[in-house]
Amino acid sequence: MSDSLRPLNRPRLYEQVVQRLREHVADSGLRTGDRLPPERTLAEQLGVSRASVKQAIVVLEVQGLVEVRHGGGTYLLRESLEVEPVEELVERKRRLPDVLDAREGMETKLAELAAQRRTDEDMAEIDAALSAMRAEIEDGEIGQDGDRRFHAAVTAAAHSALLAEFMRTIAAEIAESRNESLRQPRRPSKSLAQHERIAEAIRNGDAKAAASAMARHLRTVSRVRLLDWDPEG
Description:
The protein is about 70% helix and about 5% strand. The protein has about 230 residues and is mainly alpha-helical. The chain folds into two domains: about 15-75, Winged helix-like DNA-binding domain superfamily/Winged helix DNA-binding domain (Arc Repressor Mutant, subunit A); about 85-230, GntR ligand-binding domain-like (Four Helix Bundle (Hemerythrin (Met), subunit A)). The chain has a two-stranded antiparallel sheet. α2 (about 40-45) packs across α3, α4 (about 85-115) runs parallel beside α9 (about 185-205) and α5 packs antiparallel against α9. The model has no long low-confidence stretch (mean pLDDT about 90). Pfam families: FCD (PF07729), GntR (PF00392).
């Protein structure tokens, strides 16, 4: 069969609901912090089931565009709903577990080595990264650059050329997992606090505590809404 005659992909109903919600937010002038209409109202107005509306909301939640407050409604975290295609979400969901496994294996060891090998200059860069992340969060951002800088500083402090090279080979995937984690509600401040505990263990030269603190942090990083999402649900 000619490739041009391959079967057409039909958009899922909830994808159409997502598009309508994007248009509604744009047309209504809703802003960050505003509440979307209740699911029941949306279902009635759009002529779809509440299940379709609920799945559309989950897609927006997975992308960090809305926050669902149980019993309190759905609130905008961005002023526009620029939605990533579902196919790209599915592919990222497929990749993420492997990336998280790799991070846990390598970064736990890097934190341990950093506690054993760090110099005063290394510690100064770790502290500077923490300050940068704190400033970003205080400015209402998710702290992505400070987070990247912190993990890079820990890697440098380990003084392991081969592990550093391994980290560079998956830098794009690590950035993706960082994004996924930091856009979870209230996650940036929690990650900062965990970074501070890792830094303190490294400062004290406590390799076991540094590895343990990094492992706890990466378990938090792995708790993202995307991994619970069922695109066929």
